[in-house]
Amino acid sequence: MRFGDVPKDESINFQKTKLLDVSKEHTKLDKIHKNRSVHFCFKMCESWISSVLDHTPDNSKVEDRMLSGFEPTPPGSRAFLQETVRAALTELETSNTFTCLTDVVYNVTRMKKDEEGLILEGAGKTVELAYLKNQLRREQITRANDIGLREELIANLKDDLQTQFFQNQMEQEFVNRWESARCEQNAERLDKTVSGLKEQEDLLKHNMDTEMRVHTDTINFLSQAIQVLPGHKVQRSPKDRFQIDEEPHTCYQQCEPPSTDILSPYHSVQVDSTFTF
To answer: PANTHER family from the entry (predicted)?
Structure first.
């Protein structure tokens, strides 16, 4: 049971009481006004009000607040119906017309149509909202897929860049090691070449010194030999001439060639055949 609902028995009793009140009012009006049209209209109003009361819940607390002026009276409530009945009865008593009831019915009908229109509009809005939600969900899925593809592409690019970086680093290290080894080999070859050139230079200097000594010794020897050759005129003193005559072999002894011990260091030296003194 909702808040403000009245049990069935009490609701039936309340409706009977209301109907009795309406009947009393009808009897009173019937005595005052004998017009058939008014009586017929009142009957129609009574039947309409009774049918509405049968389907209207009793919200007494809400109605009390509405009647006290705190809240406006909504159409379809008991307070609204009571006010409508009072206004209709007052109009019937005073002017024998029911324009107030007609206006109320027209307004209620218009409000019901407006409400139905709002309901239909709300249903359309609901369908449109569902369509927009589905479209938004599709766009979210599509965007999520695009983001996933982009993230995958970015991850692949990062992997490729990292692989390329490592490959370049390994190639650079290999080139550096190869260049370092090549430089070391070239340095070793250069050192060997320099040491070999120094050895050749030392040997060449030694050979040149040896050749110069041999050349000098040879010139000295030839000069001494030329001086003692026959037919070579040499001015000598009488004492020297006498010594030559006395001892002819002594001159040859004085011009003996240098000993082999002096030339022994030059036996291993190869002298060019084109060498000239």
So the answer is: DYNEIN REGULATORY COMPLEX PROTEIN 9
